[in-house]
């Protein structure tokens, strides 16, 4: 059974703070790790798909790293803005079941002006 | 280029009733997955349809069934509704290919189902 865990569950920061959160997953039979950003009343939006150990991806002020040997990924947000407030989900495809995604429970980020 | 669209947006049903939710995938996509998101949890995989057949299934009872049409759109049906079926139901589309696990899935806005 593939378990994907995220921490913390929620995070409250001030505008301008940098923040990071964690996604952990079983390191055996790893295939890929997805990060999604989900704003209230909108659809989840893909941020990154990471596949290689040591991978680092960046999109504006948001970046992510991947360690497949120890089974974790970090998502960083530099200089948080109120528009970064959202739930950040990570998910890993089931190794032997194609596109089935196993999601973590999400980290809810609130950025206060 | 239309993204994933779901209907209806909200739905209120009573216990024991049946419901049908609909999803149109992103243009060019041929695979549709359905997820249930209960309050405080991450989305849970229900099933996936490709070539009009259920290809994979999560840990959901047979009350949950689906269908995919030749135009790749899909329906999720839930029979004998229970209070615990109250949730947001998300549809996601993707391309079936060797590299699909490297591709992000594209999600709709979801259908909020409330059971009274």
Plain-language structure description:
The complex is a heterodimer of chains A (113) and B (116). Chain A has 113 residues and is mainly β. Chain A has strands spanning 5-7, 10-14, 19-24, 33-38, 45-50, 56-59, 62-67, 72-77, 86-93, 101-103, 107-112. Chain B is mostly beta strands. In chain B, strand 5 (44-50) and strand 6 (53-57) form a beta hairpin. The termini of chain B are far apart. Classes of the chains: A mainly beta (113), B mainly beta (116).
Tag the structure with descriptive keywords.
heterodimer, A: 113 residues, mainly beta, six-stranded mixed sheet, five-stranded antiparallel sheet, 11 strands, 0% helix, globular, B: 116 residues, seven-stranded mixed sheet, four-stranded antiparallel sheet
Secondary-structure map with pairings?
The complex is a heterodimer of chains A (113) and B (116).
Chain A: E1 5-7, E2 10-14, E3 19-24, E4 33-38, E5 45-50, E6 56-59, E7 62-67, E8 72-77, E9 86-93, E10 101-103, E11 107-112
Parallel strand pairs in A: 2-11
Antiparallel strand pairs in A: 1-3, 3-8, 4-5, 4-9, 6-7, 7-8, 9-10, 9-11
Chain B: E1 5-7, E2 10-13, E3 19-24, E4 31-37, E5 44-50, E6 53-57, E7 64-68, E8 74-78, E9 87-94, E10 106-107, E11 111-115
Parallel strand pairs in B: 2-11
Antiparallel strand pairs in B: 1-3, 3-8, 4-5, 4-9, 5-6, 7-8, 9-10, 9-11
Question: In brief, what are we looking at here?
Answer:
With 113 residues, chain A is mainly β. Chain A contains no helices and 11 strands. In chain A, 0% of the residues lie in helices and 52% in strands.
Biggest sheet architecture of chain B: 7 strands, mixed
Radius of gyration of chain B: 14 Å
Largest sheet of chain A: 6 strands, mixed
- Which pair of chains has the greatest number of interface residues, and how are they split between the two chains? A-B, 28 and 30 residues
Strand content of chain B: over 45%
Strand runs of chain A, count = 11
Structural class of chain B: mainly beta
Tell me, briefly, the overall form of chain A.
Answer: globular
Q: What ranges of chain A have pLDDT less than 50 throughout 5 or more consecutive residues?
A: none
Give the averaged pLDDT of chain B, no decimals. Answer: 93
| Percentage of β-strand residues of chain A | over 45%
How many separate helices of chain B?
Answer: 0
End-to-end span of chain A in angstroms? 41 Å
**Quaternary status of these chains?**
heterodimer
């Amino acid at each position: 059974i593939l378990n994907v865990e995220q921490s913390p569950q929620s995070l409250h920061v001030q505008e301008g703070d940098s923040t990071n959160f964690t996604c952990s997953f079983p390191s055996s039979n790893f295939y890929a790790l997805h990060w999604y950003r989900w704003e209230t009343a909108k659809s989840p939006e893909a941020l990154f798909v990471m596949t290689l150990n040591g991978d680092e991806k960046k999109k504006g002020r948001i970046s992510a790293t991947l360690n497949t040997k120890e089974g974790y990924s970090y998502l960083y947000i530099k200089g948080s803005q109120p528009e970064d407030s959202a739930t950040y989900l990570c998910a890993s495809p089931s190794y032997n079941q194609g596109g089935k995604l196993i999601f973590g429970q999400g980290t809810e980020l609130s950025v206060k002006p | 280029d239309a993204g994933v669209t779901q209907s209806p947006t909200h739905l209120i049903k009573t216990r024991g009733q049946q419901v049908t939710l609909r999803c149109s995938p992103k243009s060019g996509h041929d695979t549709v997955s359905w997820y249930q998101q209960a309050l405080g949890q991450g989305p849970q995989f229900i099933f996936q349809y490709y070539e009009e057949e259920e290809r994979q299934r999560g840990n959901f009872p047979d009350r949950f069934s689906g269908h995919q049409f030749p135009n790749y759109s899909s329906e999720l049906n839930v029979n004998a509704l229970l209070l615990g079926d109250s949730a947001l139901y998300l549809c996601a589309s993707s391309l079936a290919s060797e590299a699909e696990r490297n591709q992000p899935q594209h999600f709709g806005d979801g259908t909020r189902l409330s059971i009274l």
